[in-house]
Specification:
Layout: H1 9-19, H2 21-30, E1 35-38, H3 45-50, E2 54-57, H4 66-69, H5 79-90, H6 94-98, E3 101-105, H7 109-118, E4 124-127, H8 135-156, H9 162-183, H10 195-205, H11 214-232, E5 240-245, H12 253-261, E6 265-269, H13 275-278, H14 289-298, H15 309-321, E7 326-332, H16 336-352, E8 356-362, H17 369-381
Parallel strand pairs: 1-2, 1-3, 3-4, 5-6, 5-7, 7-8
Helix pairs in contact: 1-10, 5-7, 8-14, 9-11, 12-17
Bound molecules: Double cubane cluster (BJ8).
């Protein structure tokens, strides 16, 4: 069996962008470009792009600062929230350090309450995210995007015109399209690349601050993967897994590794580290740019929405398109919304799609790697 791990140079540019993310942000700061720290996929990235600012993700993914966070926050809280707060408090995260403004959204209870304390370390703007995708919800989200624009204008002394927003929409749509076309290579059977490498590319693009250059880079990596695939013809068939649930990154990449070390391959990421952020474009034909942004972003199928039909719709489509054999739902400890939603996801995957389903609860420590491997091996064995 030959997979792309024997050709690491194909993905090296993106892996390196990830490793050197701190340096890239420092360079941005040296050029006096404003930096906006963000926490969530609901953040309308086009607004930052429209004013020429860079965005960095502050969703921390290591347990390094959790003990410090637990001095202020309850222990029984999602590790993502504790870690994010801990990095802000200890100033150990250069992304947080370099952020001129932090933008959060009223998603889950833990996150929105955490922002109240985060204000002690940085200027924080909180967007009021509705809990459902109702008509009223879309109106509120549109007005919140306009309020964000006004905050950015005031804080950075800039004017953001509708033309600026329109241009940013086109740039971000091109980036999404290119990313989607790249990871859709995993629809091939046998698959041409491991999920671990797809993930390297997806996360590597977040550290490319020249957003216009991203489509070309993605096209190049796609061509290289395809060329190898056609040349080698040695790729073997493996059980195909779709990952859903909480966002993955850093410490939780252990889940992708456990799946692939035990003989399967992750062919699709439905969570916020993948398709949730990418699949739906902003409607460029809508003359009301704020309505177009509100629609794209509020449609994201996060478990903070009630009900949350868009997660099911995306799972339905992706399970078919990627010829998925099994679904793994990763829940971070104490994430109540995703944890409660596991039942409906399990029912949908088992009963409607007639596929295998497994949910795993984990945190940012590595203490459960052995147990993860045992459970994955058993799950994959029965696929
Ligand atoms: S759009 S998934 S990035 S909220 S894991 S902090 S929900 S308790 S991260 Fe998320 Fe936006 Fe939704 Fe995506 Fe709360 Fe759950 Fe923790 Fe979470």
């Amino acid at each position: 069996m030959k997979l792309q791990t024997e050709l690491p140079e194909i993905f090296e540019e993106f892996a390196e962008a990830r490793r050197n993310g701190f340096l890239a942000v420092k360079k941005i700061k040296d050029q006096k470009i404003p930096v906006i720290g963000i926490f969530c996929t609901y953040f309308p990235q086009e607004m930052a792009l429209a004013m020429g600012a860079a965005t960095v993700s502050l969703c921390a993914s290591s347990d390094e600062t959790i003990s410090e966070a637990e001095k202020d926050l309850p222990r029984n809280l999602c590790p993502l929230i504790k870690s994010s707060y801990g990095f802000g408090k200890t100033d150990k995260c250069p992304y947080f350090y370099f952020s001129d403004l932090v933008v959060g959204e009223t998603t889950c209870d833990g996150k929105k309450k955490m922002y109240e304390y985060l204000r002690e370390f940085k200027p924080v703007h909180v967007m009021e995210l509705p809990n459902s995708q109702s008509e009223e919800g879309y109106k509120l989200w549109k007005s919140e995007i306009i309020r964000l624009k006004e905050t950015l204008e005031k804080q950075f002394g800039v004017t953001i015109t509708e033309e600026d927003v329109k241009e940013a929409i086109v740039v971000k749509n091109k980036e999404r399209k290119a990313l989607k076309e790249f990871y859709e290579l995993s629809k091939l059977d046998p698959v041409p690349m491991l999920g671990q490498d797809v993930f390297k590319v997806i996360s590597g693009t977040t550290f490319e601050f020249d957003r216009k250059s991203i489509p070309e880079k993605l096209e190049a990596v796609k061509e290289k993967v395809l060329a190898e695939y056609k040349k080698e013809k040695k790729y073997s068939q493996k059980p195909r897994i779709l990952l859903t649930g909480c966002p993955i990154g850093g410490a939780t990449e252990k889940v992708i590794k456990a799946i692939e070390d035990n003989g399967a391959v992750v062919v699709a990421f439905e969570n916020c580290s993948g398709a949730k952020a990418v699949e739906e474009m902003v409607d460029e034909s809508n003359p009301d740019v704020y309505a177009a942004l509100a629609e794209k972003y509020l449609n994201i199928g996060c478990s903070c929405m009630t009900p949350n039909p868009n997660r099911i719709k995306m799972l339905d489509r992706m399970i078919d398109e990627y010829q998925v054999d099994g679904v793994v739902d990763m829940i971070l400890t104490a994430c109540h919304t995703y944890n409660v939603e596991t039942l409906s996801i399990k029912r949908f995957v088992n009963d409607k799609k007639e596929k295998s389903y497994m949910s795993i609860e984990t945190d940012f420590s590595q203490s459960d790697v052995g147990q993860l491997n045992t459970r994955m091996a058993a799950f994959i064995e029965m696929l």
